[in-house]
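Q: I have 261 residues here and want to know how they pack in 3D. Can you give me a structure?
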Amino acid sequence: MSALTQFPLLFLPVCFCVLTLAAWLGARVARARRAETEHTLDLALTATLTLLALIIGFAFSMAVGRYDMRKTYEEAEANAIGTEYARAGLLSATDAARIRQLLGAYLDERIRFYEVRSDARLAQVDTDTARLQQQLWSAVETAANGGRDVFVAQVAAGMNDVLNSQSYTQAAWWNRIPGEAWELLVVIAILGAALFGYATHARKATAVQVVLPLVISVAFFLIADLDSPRTGLVHVTAQNLRALADSYAEAARGRAVPHTP
C-alpha cells in the first residue's frame, strides 16, 4: 500500500475504482435482498464516514507537516552553506579558496537532490554528495592543522552545521505517513463506500454512488501527493539554494556581493 501511495497519479484511479466497486457491491447486495434503508444502517454509515473524515483530517495534517518540514530544512541548508561560505574568508587565502570551491560544487549537488526524480540519478547525487562532504571536512582539518585559533573553530563549527543540515533534510524526506495508517484509511473507506452503496441502492441513485468514492479518492490523492516529495505533483523546490547559487554566480562575474541567507 505504501509503495502505491508513492505514485499519486496512479493511486487516484486505483482508489476510485476500488471504492466505486465497493459501493456497487453494497448496492447490489441491497437490491438482491430488496432491503429498505434502516435507521441502524444510517447510524452505521454516519459513524463510519465520520471516523473516516477524522482520520483523513489527521493524515492530511501529517502530510502538510512533513511538507513544511522539508521546506524548512531546505532553507536551513541554504543558510548553513551561505554562512560557511562567508566564514571561509577567515582562513588563509589558499584554504578559503579550496573550501569555497568545494562548497560551490556541494551546493550544486544539493540543488540536484531536490530536482532529480529517477532513482538512478538520485543514487549518483547521494554518492557525489558523500564524496564532497568528505572533501569539505578534510579541507577544514587541513586548515585546523595549520593553526588552532578561534577563527578555525568557527569555520569547523560552520562546516558541522552544513553536514548536519543535509542529514536533517534526508531524514525529513524519508519521514512519511506509515503504511499501516494508509491501510487503515483504505479499509475504512471501502467499508464506508459499501455502506453508502447499500443505503443508496435505488436505481435512480446509481449516479450518486460514485460521488463518495470520487470525493474520498481526491482527498487520498492530495494526501499522497503531499507525502510524496519526489514523485508527486507538489514538490519542494530548491528555491533558497538556487538563489544562493545565483548570487555566487553573479559575484563571480563581479556584478554583486555574495548573498548569505
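Q: Anything worth noting?
A: The mean pLDDT is 86. The chain is about 80% helix and 0% strand.
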